[in-house]
Design brief:
This is Troponin I, fast skeletal muscle. The protein contains six helices and no strands. It has helices at residues 2-48, 58-106, 119-127, 146-158, 161-168, 170-180. It is elongated.
């Protein structure tokens, strides 16, 4: 049993090691992502917000203010459009997740039970009509003696008594009996 305990300990240690390695990997990925986002932000700001140089004269200052107001207005419109798009997308997401929830509620998966199944039955279930019985069926057949088949032949010739009774019962049977003269 000590061997088994050592094995278990080794497996647990390995699992812990893998877990910590995965966490470390995740941390470095998150840090990389954050750094990339910061670089992207700086580039965007440099492109869209050039450093401001304040002019000396009153007229130039008024021109600058007008330009800034126009820029603010266009950015505000952009922000509004983006917000509307986001709201629309969020609504679609909510609707889809609601549909998913409804569907999950309707179709409960039945608890699966173990079923004993022959190889042929399994192949038929998996392949459907394409399955040709390719197992050795002769192994499953019982041996038949010659005399048995002759006895069965005699019985077949006599016919099934239930069939005869059914044929003679009811109005149809009486009509037949009358016509044949039985």
């Amino acid at each position: 049993s000590s061997h088994l305990q050592k094995k278990r300990r080794a497996a647990t240690a390995r699992r812990q090691h893998l877990k910590s390695a995965m966490l470390q990997l995740a941390v470095t990925e998150i840090e990389k992502e954050a750094a990339a986002k910061e670089v992207e932000k700086q580039n965007y700001l440099a492109e869209h917000c050039p450093p401001l140089s304040i002019p000396g004269s009153m007229q130039e200052l008024q021109e600058l203010c007008k330009k800034l107001h126009a820029k603010i207005e266009s950015v505000d419109e952009e922000r509004y459009d983006t917000e509307v798009k986001l709201q629309k997308t969020n609504k679609e997401l909510e609707d889809l997740s609601q549909k998913l929830f409804d569907l999950r509620g309707k179709f409960k998966r039945p608890p699966l039970r173990r079923v004993r199944m022959s190889a042929d039955a399994m192949l038929r279930a998996l392949l459907g009509s394409k399955h040709k019985v390719c197992m050795d069926l002769r192994a499953n057949l019982k041996q038949v003696k010659k005399e048995d088949t002759e006895k069965e032949k005699d019985l077949r010739d006599v016919g099934d008594w239930r069939k005869n009774i059914e044929e003679k019962s009811g109005m149809e049977g009486r009509k037949k009996m009358f016509e044949t003269g039985e």
